[in-house]
């Protein structure tokens, strides 16, 4: 974003901090004027679009998108699934036909090529996970109402969600800003004008989710260049370690990721060990005998979400990772060369 579109927000933030005799919070310092969301909307709205999607029989639906790079729009994969034609409406009312460059169902991200107006600048991605409580806004076209803004805070981070197409996405950002049909693919923005995530769905009232900026930064350039994205694949079936599962397997704490099965021929076949039995704890059958993953490459892994996030953001197919497990009461580390996640069936 150019300086002219940021400077009034910088000045507003500096002024309010000086008047109060304190510093503005880090990450929210530029946008503390009397109308921070109005200022934000004025700055970013030329870069946010309403999308209409068609196949050869007529309209399929609507969504939102935003300018990631010169001539490149980001939206959700589920917005453009089965599309033959995609049209983008910019804030000035102009419509432009957009070409799908690539789409990735596993991250629910898609990249489109478009000829934007001269006043539409790419929006920068936030370079770290936002803190819970960070003020944010969703800009897009809920219910087809172009040029809409809703506001709230980041109400959770590192969430593991199920996408509209029923694929697991790790590291998602949770917000209480209103998210409705049509917001899909639009930006979740901090008051600095940085994209904290790509809105993907509403979970319930006052609970919405966005694909993290970090995953977006990895996936979109590959979609632009190659039309697809290859995800790392460990090749195991997993489940969280609950207190009952920990008791069944003689673990002293309920943390880590339990390997319930290792399919034959998967990347982990021969390296990791799946469950082999079952015992009943407090009336509940619990699997036994499987490895419990507690670290990858020395990074502590406590949950299935942390496992998914590490694989998504820190590895690529072909990498060999050091997997530390608890097996038969002992801690050991084995190497697994990651594969490529198979195409969805």
UniProtKB/TrEMBL annotation:
<protein>
    <submittedName>
        <fullName>S1C family serine protease</fullName>
        <ecNumber>3.4.21.-</ecNumber>
    </submittedName>
</protein>
<keyword id="KW-0378">Hydrolase</keyword>
<dbReference type="Pfam" id="PF13365">
    <property type="entry name" value="Trypsin_2"/>
</dbReference>
<dbReference type="GO" id="GO:0006508">
    <property type="term" value="P:proteolysis"/>
</dbReference>
<dbReference type="InterPro" id="IPR001478">
    <property type="entry name" value="PDZ"/>
</dbReference>
<dbReference type="InterPro" id="IPR001940">
    <property type="entry name" value="Peptidase_S1C"/>
</dbReference>
<feature type="domain" description="PDZ">
    <location>
        <begin position="232"/>
        <end position="329"/>
    </location>
</feature>
<dbReference type="InterPro" id="IPR009003">
    <property type="entry name" value="Peptidase_S1_PA"/>
</dbReference>
<dbReference type="InterPro" id="IPR051201">
    <property type="entry name" value="Chloro_Bact_Ser_Proteases"/>
</dbReference>
<feature type="region of interest" description="Disordered">
    <location>
        <begin position="268"/>
        <end position="287"/>
    </location>
</feature>
<dbReference type="Pfam" id="PF13180">
    <property type="entry name" value="PDZ_2"/>
</dbReference>
<dbReference type="InterPro" id="IPR036034">
    <property type="entry name" value="PDZ_sf"/>
</dbReference>
<dbReference type="InterPro" id="IPR006311">
    <property type="entry name" value="TAT_signal"/>
</dbReference>
<dbReference type="GO" id="GO:0008233">
    <property type="term" value="F:peptidase activity"/>
</dbReference>
<feature type="compositionally biased region" description="Polar residues">
    <location>
        <begin position="278"/>
        <end position="287"/>
    </location>
</feature>
<keyword id="KW-0645">Protease</keyword>
């Amino acid at each position: 974003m150019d300086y002219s579109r940021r400077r009034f927000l910088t000045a507003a933030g500096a002024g309010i901090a000086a008047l109060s005799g304190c510093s503005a919070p880090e990450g929210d310092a530029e946008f503390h004027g009397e109308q921070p969301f109005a200022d934000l909307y004025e700055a970013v709205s030329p870069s946010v679009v309403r999308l209409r999607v068609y196949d050869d029989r007529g309209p399929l639906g609507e969504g939102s998108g935003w300018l990631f790079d010169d001539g490149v729009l980001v939206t959700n994969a589920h917005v453009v699934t089965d599309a033959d034609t995609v049209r983008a409406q910019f804030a000035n009312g102009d419509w432009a036909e957009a070409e799908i460059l690539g789409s990735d169902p596993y991250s629910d991200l898609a990249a489109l090529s478009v000829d934007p107006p001269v006043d539409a600048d790419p929006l920068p991605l936030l370079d770290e996970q936002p803190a819970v409580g960070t003020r944010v806004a969703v800009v897009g076209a809920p219910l087809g109402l172009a040029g809409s803004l809703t506001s709230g805070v980041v109400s959770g981070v590192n969430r593991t969600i199920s996408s509209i197409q029923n694929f697991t996405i790790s590291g998602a950002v949770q917000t209480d800003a209103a998210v409705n049909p049509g917001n899909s693919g639009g930006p979740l923005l901090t008051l600095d004008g940085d994209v904290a995530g790509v809105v993907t769905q509403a979970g319930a009232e006052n609970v919405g989710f966005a694909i993290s900026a970090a995953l977006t930064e990895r996936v979109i350039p590959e979609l632009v260049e190659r039309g697809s994205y290859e995800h790392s694949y460990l090749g195991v079936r997993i489940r969280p370690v609950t207190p009952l599962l920990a008791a069944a397997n003689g673990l002293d704490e309920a943390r880590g990721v339990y390997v319930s099965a290792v399919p034959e021929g998967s990347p982990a076949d021969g390296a990791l060990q799946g469950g082999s039995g079952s015992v009943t704890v407090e009336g509940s059958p619990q699997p036994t005998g499987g490895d419990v993953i507690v670290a990858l490459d020395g990074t502590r892994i406590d949950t299935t979400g942390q496992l998914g996030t590490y694989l998504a953001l820190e590895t690529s197919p072909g990498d060999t990772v050091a997997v530390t497990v608890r097996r038969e009461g002992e801690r050991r580390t084995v190497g697994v060369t990651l594969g490529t996640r198979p195409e969805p069936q």
